[in-house]
Design brief:
mainly alpha, 5 helices, 65% helix, 0% strand
Length: 110
């Protein structure tokens, strides 16, 4: 049950943030610094809550590296890929990061 909650929590992180923006498609390719930090902080909270057995020190080190990477660019695709990599680093088959925008713009066509 806990793993299902973390999956749902991380799944909703970017979906919820994108729905609050009323901008055109081209502008959606960029995420403001505030939006990137907001989503990252939600990921941190969810992981800290539902992964109580993680080494906090090791997780904080990984999170610092993640933050360093996402703060360098406002490109949404790059942010999504870095976030996917960070969440995948938890090595939990029931947890993922998903952004509808990425799937819609870069998903498999055909």
């Amino acid at each position: 049950m806990t793993k299902q909650l973390i999956s749902i929590g991380i799944l909703l992180v970017v979906i919820g943030s994108a729905s609050g923006q009323h901008v055109q498609s081209q502008e959606m390719e960029k995420l403001s610094l505030q939006e990137r930090v907001f989503v990252a902080s939600k990921i941190y909270r969810v992981v800290s809550t539902f992964f109580p057995h993680l080494s906090q020190e090791a997780f904080d080190t990984q999170y610092r590296q993640y933050m360093s990477r996402i703060l360098k660019s406002d490109d949404r695709r790059e942010f999504d890929l870095i976030s996917m990599e960070f969440v995948a680093g938890l090595h939990d088959g029931h947890t993922w990061f998903y952004d509808n925008w990425l799937d819609k713009n870069y998903g498999k066509r055909g």
